[in-house]
Design brief:
The structure holds two protein chains of two kinds.
Chain A: H1 2-15, H2 20-38, H3 43-58, H4 63-84, H5 86-111, H6 120-133, H7 160-183, H8 188-208, H9 234-241, H10 243-246, H11 252-279, H12 282-292, H13 294-299, H14 304-330, H15 340-353, H16 358-388, E1 392-393, E2 398-399, H17 413-427
Antiparallel strand pairs in A: 1-2
Helix pairs in contact in A: 2-3, 2-4, 4-5, 4-11, 5-11, 5-14, 5-15, 5-16, 6-7, 6-8, 6-14, 7-14, 11-14, 12-14, 15-16
Chain B: E1 2-13, E2 16-27, E3 31-35, H1 42-49, E4 57-62, E5 65-66, H2 72-78, E6 80-82, H3 95-102, H4 111-116, H5 119-138, H6 155-168, E7 173-177, H7 185-202, E8 205-209, H8 213-219, E9 222-227, E10 230-235, H9 237-241, H10 244-251, H11 253-264
Parallel strand pairs in B: 3-8, 3-9, 6-7, 7-8
Antiparallel strand pairs in B: 1-2, 1-4, 4-5, 9-10
Helix pairs in contact in B: 3-6, 5-6, 10-11
The chains are: A mainly alpha, B alpha/beta.
Amino acid sequence: MKNIKSFLQGLLAKLQEGKNPYIFTVVHILLGTIWVYASPRNNIAFIVLLASLYSLYALNTKATFKAVAAGLLAFVVMPILGARNIFFLEIIFQISVFSALALGLNIVVGFAGLLNLGYGAFYAVGAYLWAFFGSQQIYALQYAPGTQPSDLPFLLPQDAFYLFILVGIIVSAITGILLGTPVIRLRGDYLAIVTLGFGEVIRVLANNLDKPLNFTNGPQGITPIQRPSLPPDALEFFNTGLRPIIGNSVSEGQLYNVFFYLLAVIMIVLIVFVARRLEDSKLGRAWTAVREDETAAIAMGIPLVSTKLAAFAVGASFAGAMGVLMAASRTFVSPESFSFMQSIGVLSMVILGGAGSIPGVILGAATVTILNLQILQGLSLYLSQLRQSDAVIPIINFPWRELSTQLDPAKYQRLLFGLILILMMIFRPTGLIPAERRKRELQLKEGDE
Amino acid sequence: MTLLDTHQVVKRFGGLTAVNKMDFKLDQGEIVSIIGPNGAGKTTFFNTLTGIYRPEEGKIEFDGHTLIGLRPDQIAGRGIARTFQNIRLFGGMSVIENILIGMHVQLKQNPAEAILRNKKFVGEEREAELKAERLMKFVGLDLSLANELAKNLPYGGQRRVEIARALAAHPKLLLLDEPTAGMNPQETEEAVRLFRRVRDEKGITVLLIEHDMRVVMSISERISVMDYGEKIAEGSPSQIRSNQRVIEAYLGRGAAASQHEEKSL
């Protein structure tokens, strides 16, 4: 056992030496790319390709190499592979959306140490904002849900979407401050309970604001919501210029998947950029100080209320922006997307990945999303195939056919998350990639005065 | 020049009067100690000065302005920095970051500048880091510890970080709450030298709560004695040493009386 461990450590050390990390990363990316290209329905191939992003992050290569390789993967390789199997793009889109949510929650929970169980509310604010202004809903205020005529005009042009990303950021930040103001003096469990309540309030509002005026269309949700216009010629470009590489024609709907995938990637890059720079500034340090010791922090001149409110506002703004994006990509919102389990799901991504660690929470979001959408669904599918066959379970000789349909891996999502979180808390409480403090270069030498 | 002036300050917790009618004056550039038995109200008095507690009665003036009604962070901004009886560092942050937190009030950057990383932001951060490194040297911390997490430092090192963090705020008044508790004689001696340098080189007024009488007697220019929330004596070290009420407070009336008898015998 010990031998294996030291052997593996030696191997890892070798991997980080000289040119090895470059070779390994390139081979990993190429392997993933070619495999996914060759068999676009293969989930394992796709996970290998996604894992190459981790190699790119973790191995010791130059920053420019990382940036170029990541750029090529995100903006060239993925759109092409995705056009061959839109499902993969959908997974990356969801990973991006959940990463953004997890990064926002990470500012509140990870940096500032304020436990927020109602984070989904800010996501809902962003989503309903564009759902209301980007649909016909404003002309349907008088109609009960389901009775509005279908020929109502749209309030805004479809490209107002871009403006509404900004509006979504501002409105959800304000919502964050409004929620934060009354609860800012609460700590720990008390804060968690109040934020949980707030999350439910927003969901219940979305459910019931269909009367007296129909703002949200109640449980049925709002649809259709406008999508921004695609660049002209994009469809033609995919279906003529890229046709030989892609190998199949792309419909407008599929092109929208590519388009929203690209938007999500760009937004994630911006969000990581903002989060990293804020973390390493006076405000970010103040957040951590408040998390570590409130009393000492105020004695050092840190204003508690405005520092915590800033965390709420910044965290909420990420979710608001992603809410707008989500509403447009789905062309549909309904209250059930913003349930309590949604907030808990994002929280578990943060804890799984490593609270306070930006690469950690992204990995957490990716792991949970892949588990949800690919691994469990894949197992369910496999099991249902077995049920339709005449095969029997070996050893106990029990036919698969008679296995209860209740035994469906996709339904045991929560059980699995619970287990993962318990195991993490026991064996690695700081998360998959624990948060680290930045090492600063010293300006003084030991002998200087 | 009077720096700090409290007048009839009262702090109660329910039926208990922790600080009772405290009159206390501090001149610019002094080193003064507050002593007294455990539970005398010394730390409560500190907490009242720094705004963590609000006094029920009385006035507190600092540098010509009242502190009553200000929040702790505002009071810190006015120039009062402190250390805590049981060290309260930001354990999960590095040593240099702890000191940078002390500069919070001085740093003028806003979040937009932090995101854009303009010249002003970068310059200010570099200058702050340089200042933090100088402070590490001033309090006698090895520079190689700068990126170490504060919680990993030994006890004496943590005390030094706490003082550096307080000094980073450019305070006019430094409050030290039992700064040498748990130190060995050599460390204590170094600490006393450091407190003197804080006053002599930086011109900062120092007020300390201390139990170690060697420290108190060697460093203080003036000593105030508290017992049951009240100031029972004030004066130079030699005056305090021979003050009957002080001896009683520390040893109890009977013991003090017998000590008196022994002397007269």
